Amino acid sequence: VEVVHFSADDPRVESAIGDFEDALSLRRASTGVDCVYLVMPLVYDRERVVRWGRNAIDAAVEAGVGVIVFNTSSVVSAKTTGVTAIDIKVDLEAYLQQARIPSIVLRTTVYMGNFAAPWSVPALVHQGVLAYPLPADRRVSWISWVVAAAYAVAALKRPDLAALKPVLQTGGPQALTGPELAAVMQRVLDRPVSYVAVPLEQFEAGLNASFGVPVGTEIARFYAWISDPANGTPLDVDLTPLRVELPALQKTFEAWAREIPWAQLADKNIVP
């Protein structure tokens, strides 16, 4: 699957602006559209965000959209967990299943791009510290944004599959531990790299300082849930069902890492 990049001012792109709180604006934006790709914003208010998602789904139904593809952008449990970030997606998956529209849900693991964030890169490049709020032995099928986009494009082209309303787990081709990630980055950066599991209390405090409460608190609760062995191994996924239905490009963590201008990011503190 080829992913084609467009900019907002590209003459091939027609923009329509809607408001999640304004159902009529969403219906106008959905009118004449063949497919809808839905991703919810990172807002940690379950009632509010579920209402937004339902508004978007209802608008697509009322506008006669052919297919809706919902990218959860996170792990989703089979039932509610008490973790806002997960429970929002549980609620919206259930709502989409009963909606009168063909749909495909793409459940995502964790994005490789998190390691290229401004708060991560300087320590990695200058100190050889690969830090993340997951236990070192936790295996994760990291996925890149480009691969996630490729799966979305492939799904949007499958109205036959959407008629079955499948829920598919996406992820990368490798399930790597923290030390295995560090070994990859050591090869890429050509310097010693060690993995450090960031304590969740420290992680929470840092995010709350940067983005305000409850962002850090809710994200920390999400990482606590996916780190808990009692919840299984939701980040180490079997991609066989996905590959059968949506054959798309694959990208290993090392292939992705070799495309990132690490030194430039560390010096300019920008996100690629």
Task: Provide an overview of this structure.
The chain is an alpha/beta fold and about 270 residues long. The protein is about 45% helix and about 10% strand. The chain has helices at about 25-30, 45-60, 85-100, 120-125, 145-155, 160, 180-190, 200-210, 215-225, 240-245, 255, 260-270; strands at about 35-40, 65-70, 105, 130, 165-170, 195. A four-stranded parallel β-sheet has the order 1-2-3-5, sandwiched between helices. The longest helix is centred in the N-terminal third of the chain and has 17 residues, at about 45-60. It is globular and about 55 Å long. The two termini are about 20 Å apart.
Question: Secondary structure elements and their pairing?
Answer:
Elements (H helix, E strand, L loop, with lengths): L22 H8 L4 E4 L7 H17 L4 E5 L12 H15 L4 E5 L13 H7 L1 E4 L12 H12 L2 H4 L4 E3 L8 H12 L4 E4 L2 H12 L3 H13 L12 H6 L7 H5 L4 H7 L4
Parallel strand pairs: 1-2, 2-3, 3-5, 4-6
Helix pairs in contact: 1-2, 2-3, 4-12, 8-9
Please tag this protein with its features:
272 residues; 6 strands; four-stranded parallel β-sheet; 9% strand; globular; alpha/beta; single chain; two-stranded parallel sheet
Percent helix among the residues?
40-55%
How are strands sequenced across the largest beta sheet?
A: 1-2-3-5
Question: Termini separation (Å)?
Answer: 22 Å
Number of strands: 6
By helix and strand content, what is the structural category? alpha/beta
Q: Which consecutive residue ranges, at least 5 long each, have pLDDT under 50?
A: none
Mean pLDDT: 93
Question: Per DSSP, what share of the residues sits in E-state strands of 2 or more residues?
Answer: 5-15%
Order of helices and strands: HEHEHEHEHHEHEHHHHH
The biggest beta sheet is recorded as: 4 strands, parallel
What spatial form do the alpha-carbon principal axes imply?
globular
Number of helices: 12
Q: Radius of gyration over alpha carbons?
A: 19 Å
